[in-house]
Design brief:
The chain has 407 residues and is an alpha+beta fold. The chain is built from 17 helices and 13 strands. α3 runs parallel beside α5. The radius of gyration is 22 Å and the shape is globular.
């Protein structure tokens, strides 16, 4: 940043701090460093690459997108040390085969293929050492960087968000907790022939190692050139799954990273892989959210206003102009619910309109109020699904999927 600032000054320009931070060269350096740091820093880079959309220049989004699947694997000596610490010496005797070359390396851990003594193919997720211990400082450091960059509105209260981010990441780094969520979803979705959840092996799993049955499949993005009917089917299944998670299970996997899904070409099944970001919701909170969506489905602005207050989008003292803007934003977000027939995400400009409405609200410092964090995590999942639907140019009858929940 200093070098770029000096270059601009020498050309008679007055550099802007945020512009210096967000040059393509700097983004490439940041992405490279985050992929080596792993852990929380890389995870936040992944979120930026997915959620920023066209808020960032395409060159920067493309560079940051590498973080979704391009972590640096740990050295062999480090891997063996983690395995011995968790399983003890002679751990190799548990398996007929164990591949030391990782199948994938992500922000918190890397995945290895193995075969158990019973012949079962296994996927073994091994956590990078030190991840849990670094979460608090990593989150604080990235928050400082965001404040310095000028990307956040002045006066925005980050404290509750940072506290919740740390808690959420600690949960994601607890593989025993993830094993519990994996087992829950395996049971809940046992009646869904189009969705495959691997079986967890509690007897092998530890806080740093998660063992599950191996599930083949390619990236969901590979469906980009599949027949329209197949793309529509897959995204329809994922919308239906989200509605079940929220309104039936009260248990939602909130991480929208596309890499959490795989697709089996032979069976047509969607494989669900990562349950670290699973959150439990109370019946009261999901019922309030259901009332909000029903109001949006009916385009009933008075009911939206009432439900938005209940959910926590604004407070009793919120100015009328801000309520009006937020009500309009919610109405727009519910557009797919009101659409008769299949909603075409490929030609929709909904994401851009929501972004513009959000910026209009965010530009007014008097408005700043952070909704409940649980709601923000739910937004994250919905936004990720909207983006995936747009990427695959899918057409989905969202209204028909939601109708069973309208009472």
């Amino acid at each position: 940043m200093l070098a770029e600032g000096a270059r601009q000054l020498s050309q008679g320009k007055r550099p802007v701090f945020s512009d210096l931070l967000l040059t393509p060269g700097n983004a490439q350096r940041v992405a490279e460093q985050l992929s080596q740091l792993r852990g929380t820093a890389m995870k936040i880079g992944q979120l930026l690459s997915m959620d920023a959309g066209d808020l960032l220049p395409s060159e920067l989004s493309d560079i940051l997108a590498r973080l979704r699947s391009d972590a640096h694997p740990m050295p062999m000596s480090q891997l063996v040390a983690v395995l011995e610490e968790s399983w003890g010496k002679g751990w190799e005797g548990r398996f007929d085969r164990f591949s030391f070359t990782p199948l994938a390396a992500a922000s918190i851990g890397q995945v290895h293929a193995a075969q158990g003594k019973d012949g079962q193919r296994l996927a073994i997720k091994v956590q990078y050492p030190g991840v849990r211990e670094s979460i608090s400082s990593d989150v604080d450091n990235v928050a400082t960087l965001l404040r310095m960059s000028g990307l956040l509105p002045p006066g925005m209260d980050l404290v509750p968000l940072l506290h919740e981010a740390k808690r959420q990441l600690q949960d994601e780094a607890d593989y025993l907790k993830e094993a519990t969520h994996l087992r829950r979803f395996h049971q809940l979705l046992a009646d869904s022939p189009d969705i495959l959840v691997p079986r967890g092996y509690a007897e092998f799993s530890t806080p740093n190692i998660l063992v599950m049955s191996f599930a083949d499949g390619g990236p969901l993005e590979s469906l980009e050139h599949a027949p329209q009917a197949e793309r529509d089917r897959v995204i329809t299944l994922l919308f239906g799954l989200l509605l079940r998670e929220v309104f039936e299970f009260q248990c939602v996997q909130t991480d929208p990273n596309f890499a959490n899904y795989r697709y089996q070409q032979e069976t047509g099944q969607i494989v669900l892989l990562d349950f670290g970001a699973t959150r439990l919701y109370s019946r009261d909170s999901t019922e309030a959210f259901r009332r909000l969506l029903v109001a949006g489905w009916r385009d009933d602005r008075a009911a939206i206003n009432e439900a938005a207050l209940e959910v926590g989008y604004f407070q009793h003292e919120t100015l009328a102009k801000h309520r009006l803007l937020l009500t309009d934003l919610i109405c727009q977000a519910c557009e797919p619910l009101r659409h008769q027939g299949a909603y075409d995400f490929a030609i929709s400009d909904l994401a851009g309109r929501l972004r513009d409405a959000g910026w209009q609200l965010g530009a007014d410092r008097d408005f700043w109020h952070t909704p409940p964090v649980a709601v923000l995590f739910l937004h994250r999942k919905v936004a990720g699904l909207y983006m995936l639907a747009a990427k695959l140019k899918a057409r989905v009858d969202v209204r028909r999927l939601f109708e069973p929940y309208v009472m």
